[in-house]
Amino acid sequence: MVKRSQGIGPRHTKILVYMERYQKKYGYPPAIREICEETEISSTSVVNYYLEQLEGWGYIKREKNISRGITIIKDAFNKLMDESINPLVEKVETLVRIPVVGRIVAGLPVPVPASDLAYFDPESAIDIARSMLPQREKMDDLFALEVQGESMIDAMVNDGDVIIMKKATEARNGEMVAVWLLDKDETTLKYFYHEGSKVRLQPANKTMQPIIIDDPKTIQIQGKVLMVVRRLPVVG
Amino acid sequence: MVKRSQGIGPRHTKILVYMERYQKKYGYPPAIREICEETEISSTSVVNYYLEQLEGWGYIKREKNISRGITIIKDAFNKLMDESINPLVEKVETLVRIPVVGRIVAGLPVPVPASDLAYFDPESAIDIARSMLPQREKMDDLFALEVQGESMIDAMVNDGDVIIMKKATEARNGEMVAVWLLDKDETTLKYFYHEGSKVRLQPANKTMQPIIIDDPKTIQIQGKVLMVVRRLPVVG
DNA sequence: CTTGACATCGAACGCATGTTCGTGTATAAA
DNA sequence: TTTATACACGAACATGCGTTCGATGTCAAG
Predict the structure, then answer these.
(1) What are the residue ranges spanned by the domains of chain B?
(2) CB contact, 8 Å: B26 with chain A?
(3) In this complex, which of A28, A63, A66 lies closest to B69 when CB atoms are compared?
(4) Which residues lie below 8 Å from residue A83, measured CB to CB, with a gap of 6+?
(5) Going residue by residue through chain B (236 aa), what tens digit of pLDDT does each one get?
(6) CA–C1' nearest nucleotide, residue B1
(7) Model-level ipTM above the cut of 0.85
(8) Can you name the CATH fold of A95-229?
């Protein structure tokens, strides 16, 4: 039911290269409208759209509401350029390395990582193809958790599975979230639905009964679940 | 009758250093109001004032009407910093090197250099102490001419003198300008005065009669004279 | 065919930011 | 003392420029 994104396209690189050149020439970054002209895109919102993606991919950093507030992340930029001249190396940048920051247990709150920080412990990280993730996600907001115990079976999640999450404190209808139930002292994975002033938490397993929350204040959304990865042992 | 400028002061360097740090940190230059905060100047116009001077001195380059359109000229910046840590070297940057672009002759128009271009021919240039020049002059607009012939004696200018000029096509009362008299095919140096719809060109030598121009269209102002330098031979 | 996410557009909105101006003070030269 | 200029302030003003939103087109999965 979804159309998956193309990944980085010619317009992305064109914009990136232009910004790089501009920066080098003038000492400050171009304005969105200047990028428009150069890249022959007629609408500022489209350029903005691409910039958001580029920021999501980690190629640039932007400061909100600041004129020309663009910083080019050299590492990522260089890597991309390398790839473009050497297609053999290909697909390095199409992977996202997501840190596994802990375990998720029914009886404990979700260990959400601090807002920024470079928690880079290459040991505990998993690589996900960019194309597998929704677009425009800033990879800074992503983290992974290993599931401990059988308590999430009603979410179709097994012991040992890894779930990819995005930091969030609220959700929209139909999204799967990790919630902390204050009155039960329990973490659970459920589909989230607003139901008037109440909230319905629906198990993935449709044969099971939903939980109706009368007072939304008694739950805390810890994050949205973007993906669940289960690696099965192979013999041979 | 004038108060001479202090030259580069603590505020100039403070602003310069801040811009340098900011640029390095964020990848783009600060806005005027950010400089205000940092340097504890309460008015944007004051910062603008200093920036204009810094541009005049050649420390930075600015693009009109462009947010954060400041480029730091590294050479000048480094030189300044060197001086500040090594006062012995001192007074290097207090000099302006002005190109001598040609000769001024009564019978020919003034050879005004093209607007920008790096006409750097170190052979024919003269150094002038910054403090000798009016402030806020962009040194790009300055050039020098060597006087040829005795035809400017009524301007108290001798053969061999060098005059420092600023590019201009109009003037204000009391300024000395180099004008081209269309109907006489002649260049001359005179003090300039508006006289209603006419123009009065007054020789520096007050015993001489002024020239009254009925139709201002018959003259072309080639530049303002900022200084006249006469180097006399020394024996010994 | 319908659905929903991607991709694009154009126009409007509003804050960010450079520019201008009137005014005032201090200082050095005349 | 007077004068011309550097230096300084703050308030408007004008525009640069990022952001938002509704509309439309396209394409792949159901």
Answers:
(1) 10-85, 95-229
(2) yes
(3) A28
(4) A89, A90, A92, A93
(5) 556 666 677 888 888 889 998 998 899 999 999 999 988 898 999 999 999 888 877 888 898 899 999 998 866 676 656 555 443 333 334 456 677 777 777 656 666 665 544 444 434 666 666 655 666 556 567 788 888 776 677 776 767 777 888 877 777 777 888 888 888 888 888 888 877 778 888 887 666 788 888 888 888 888 888 877 776 554 43
(6) C29
(7) no
(8) Umud Fragment, subunit A (2.10.109)
